[in-house]
Specification:
The complex is a heterotrimer of chains A (176), B (295) and C (176).
Chain A (H helix, E strand, L loop, with lengths): L4 H12 L3 H23 L2 H18 L9 H27 L16 H11 L3 H12 L4 H8 L3 H20 L1
Helix pairs in contact in A: 1-2, 2-3, 2-4, 2-6, 3-4, 5-8, 6-8, 7-8
Chain B lengths: L1 H18 L2 E8 L5 E6 L2 E8 L3 E8 L5 E6 L3 E7 L14 E8 L3 E6 L3 E5 L5 E5 L4 E4 L5 E5 L4 E4 L5 E5 L4 E14 L4 E15 L4 E16 L4 E5 L5 E7 L4 E3 L6 E2 L7 E7 L4 E7 L4 E5 L1
Parallel strand pairs in B: 2-6, 2-8, 3-7, 3-9, 8-10, 9-11, 10-12, 11-13, 12-14, 13-15, 14-15, 15-16, 16-17, 17-18, 17-23, 18-24, 19-23, 20-24
Antiparallel strand pairs in B: 1-4, 4-7, 5-6, 19-22, 21-22
Chain C lengths: L2 H17 L11 H7 L7 H17 L19 H7 L1 H28 L5 H27 L4 H22 L2
Helix pairs in contact in C: 3-5, 4-6, 5-7, 6-7
The chains are: A mainly alpha (176), B mainly beta (295), C mainly alpha (176).
Chain lengths: 176, 295, 176
């Protein structure tokens, strides 16, 4: 879905100069990735939609500071993860308190092809928030431990411990 | 003149009635795993888990109490000491209610108070108890326990579920606890004397922190701003350690001495591992001292 | 579980993760709401940055202090503009965002506390006031240390954590 690089750079250039149509095209091309990471990290479709919107709004405002040194998709992705983490931090207490119950339904991800993917999505959604964030960032999004530790304000050891626990729980989930 | 006498009598009677303490004795049948919520603003609450199959409330209520409202059904029961709202709460001295509530052992509890103390024992279901200035004490729980207070002390004794304890200025004391522990305070002290623990997170701003417990492969994460931290861990613990303080002193019985983190910046830190290193220990302070000991 | 099973389980989990869809479309089109929020052209942060930063700090002065009096008045900023300038723009901007969160949380608390003053007893109210003061003092100490050593990564992390802590406590205390 992501546009080829040339036209991508062109879209970014146009968006930077205030072209909303160009930005919409960037949105259309990237919303799937951004929503996917948000959804998996917060395990709440409505909140994930809100954060996706926030990420794009912030991206628009910050486009001027995007220097083109990394791919636009990478830049946008990092920005979105930061938006999600900010929100998770702010909500952590509240969520722990008020929505500790396991989600009744798994997030609405398309999993038609592989039935076990549904279990996996559900398992991810039911992980404790920090373990979930570490798992999604490390295993799905390919972040390094050190990077995750910095983002989540954890020690690298604690980060690994979270990942270890998340894997263990997910394996149990898949074997069930 | 008869009318006047009657009025006088009526007023006298009313005055006596108003001053009298009301005694309470009520029972309700509840499910063995019912959820029971209890609210009492002032006074005290003693909640005792027992082998009985019904719930019994006994005690006394002051004249400021409008009624004891018990509502809901056998699965979800709510008990509320109703005190009419008035504008000058701080002006008048409230008496509230002193209640003892016996419940089937397996129920879950949600208990709230403002200044009433809360004392819970022998209840094995999940417990959530919060007070503003009253002390909260939970003994012998075996499921998840969550206690919080603003200025009152909170204490949990025994228990193997996850424990979350919070206070602003009251002391947090957890004894004989196991499993996952999370304790947070601003200026209160935290004292944890635990058995086998899995994940432990202790955080304070100005209060000191003491932890002793058997950590095997979980994480111990302690953060304090200015409070001193003292930690006692089994001598044979295999763990990765990370100790760090900006301006406090670090005393470390497990590994190498802490060094300046950076040639140009203040602060000391030390990272090392012992044994197989399957546990994680991280202790951080800003100005508090860190003392790590073996036991 | 034997080592062999363990290895196999890890491999299966990894394979399952790899089959997860990289893109997930939100259930509704988020663009109209995003477009509604793109009220202005992307701004060049490097140019106007400091003025806005300074303005934000001044605005913040309108925010925080009298949480200690449980009255809806202002708290003075803990971080002087000079210290913000010292600390470098990206970091300062990040801090301001967090400060913003704290400011909102404090204001919420002040509003709630003022509303419910009658329900808090004197001892609890005093503890709350003292607690907020301790939180502020801790934050101020870290800010002061950071002003001396602006490049200390650990202090930056500590400051970020202090802001989050303040925000967390404030929102929790608002529930009292």
């Amino acid at each position: 879905m992501i546009a080829p690089r040339d036209s991508q750079a062109d879209l970014v250039r146009r968006a930077r100069s205030g072209d909303v149509d160009a930005f919409e095209e960037l949105y259309r091309g990237h919303v799937g990735r951004i929503y996917a990471v948000s959804l998996r990290m917060v395990a709440d479709p409505a909140l994930a939609e809100e954060l996706t919107q926030e990420a794009f709004v912030r991206a628009w405002r910050k486009l001027a500071s995007y220097r083109g040194t990394s791919a636009f998709s990478t830049w946008l992705h990092r920005l979105a993860v930061n938006v999600v983490l900010d929100a998770m931090r702010a909500r952590r207490r509240w969520r722990e308190r008020f929505s500790d119950a396991p989600l009744a339904r798994p997030p609405a991800a398309p999993v038609r092809d592989h039935p076990e993917a549904l279990d996996l999505e559900r398992g991810i959604a039911q992980l404790p928030p920090r373990a979930r964030a570490v798992f999604v960032l490390h295993e799905i999004e390919g972040y390094k431990h050190r990077e995750i530790a910095r983002l989540l304000d954890l020690s690298v050891g604690a980060c690994k411990a979270h990942l270890h626990r998340a894997r263990r729980r997910l394996r149990e989930e898949l074997e069930r | 003149m008869r009318k006047t006498t009657l009025w006088t009598l009526a007023i006298l009677f009313a005055a006596v009635a108003a001053r009298a303490e009301q005694s309470v004795n009520a029972t309700r049948s509840v499910a063995a795993d019912a959820t029971i919520s209890i609210e009492n603003v002032v006074g005290s609450l003693t909640i005792i888990g027992s082998d009985e199959t019904e719930l019994r409330v006994t005690g006394t209520m002051g004249d400021d109490v409008e009624e004891l409202e018990i509502s809901g059904d056998a699965d979800e029961l709510s008990i509320e000491v109703v005190i009419p709202d008035d504008d000058n709460w701080q002006g008048k001295r409230k008496v509230g209610a002193d209640l003892e509530i016996r419940v089937p052992r397996g129920v879950s509890l949600e208990v709230e108070s403002v200044s009433a103390s809360i004392d819970i024992s022998g209840v094995s279901g999940a417990i959530e108890a919060g007070s503003v200035s009253g002390a909260v004490t939970v003994a012998g729980g075996s499921s998840d326990v969550e206690v919080e207070s603003v200025s009152g002390a909170v204490s949990v004794t025994g228990g193997s579920g996850s424990i979350v304890a919070e206070s602003v200025s009251g002391a947090v004391v957890l004894e004989g606890v196991a499993g996952d522990i999370e304790a947070t305070t601003v200026s209160g002290t935290i004292k944890v004397d635990a058995g086998a623990v899995d994940d432990v997170e202790l955080e304070s701003v100005a209060g000191s922190i003491y932890f002793k417990g058997r950590l095997t492969d979980g994480t111990l994460d302690i953060e304090s701003h200015s409070g001193n931290v003292e930690v006692l861990l089994p001598a044979d613990l295999g763990a990765e350690f990370e100790l760090e303080s900006f301006s406090g002193r670090i005393e470390n019985a497990f590994g190498p001495a802490a060094r300046r983190s950076d040639r140009y910046e203040p602060g000391v830190s030390v990272e090392f591992s012992t044994g197989s290193g399957s546990a994680d220990v991280s202790i951080e302070t800003f100005s508090g001292n860190i003392v790590l000991k073996k036991y | 579980m034997s080592d062999h099973d363990e290895v196999r389980a890890v491999r299966e989990l990894r394979a399952a993760v790899e089959r997860l869809p990289r893109e997930v479309r939100p259930a509704r089109d988020l663009w109209p709401e995003i477009a509604g929020r793109l009220d202005e052209r992307p701004r060049d942060q490097s140019a106007a940055g400091w003025w806005r930063l300074a303005a934000a700090v001044v605005l913040m002065a309108g925010g925080l202090f009298a949480a200690t009096n449980l009255a809806p008045e202002a708290r003075s900023p803990l971080l002087p503009v000079a210290a913000v300038a010292e600390a470098g723009s990206a970091m300062a901007a990040a801090h301001l965002r967090q400060r913003d969160g704290v400011l909102h949380a404090h204001n919420d608390l002040i509003a709630v506390a003022a509303q419910r003053r009658g329900r808090l007893d004197a001892v609890g109210a005093a503890a709350l006031v003292a607690g907020l003061a301790d939180l502020e003092r801790a934050t101020a100490e870290i800010e002061a240390a950071l002003a001396d050593s602006p490049r200390d990564r650990r202090l930056r992390l500590a400051l970020a954590a202090a802001y989050r802590r303040e925000a967390g406590w404030t929102s929790r205390l608002a529930r009292v």
